[in-house]
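pinging the channel bc i need a second pair of eyes. not urgent but kinda urgent?? the chain im working w is below, pasted from the shared doc
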Amino acid sequence: MRRLAQAPNLAIATLWAHALREDGIGATVQREYLGAAAGQLPPDQCLPEVWLTHDHEEPRAKALLDGLQNLPQRRW
């Protein structure tokens, strides 16, 4: 398993993992409920993470995640 990305919140981590799985990439969300320990641990270490099941899928997963994070914006 390999960590792909750290998400700003659980909702976004879940959406990213779902999008990866829809594309045939094995992904899971880790540290889902670690936010409850934020007072005991540094907050940046309590954010949810998206992990890949298979290391060889990393280049394709990074490309897909980059596409999700950088959607084209329209100016009206």
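so The helical segments are 10-22, 58-69. and DSSP finds two helices and three strands in the chain. — does that match what u expected or am i reading it wrong
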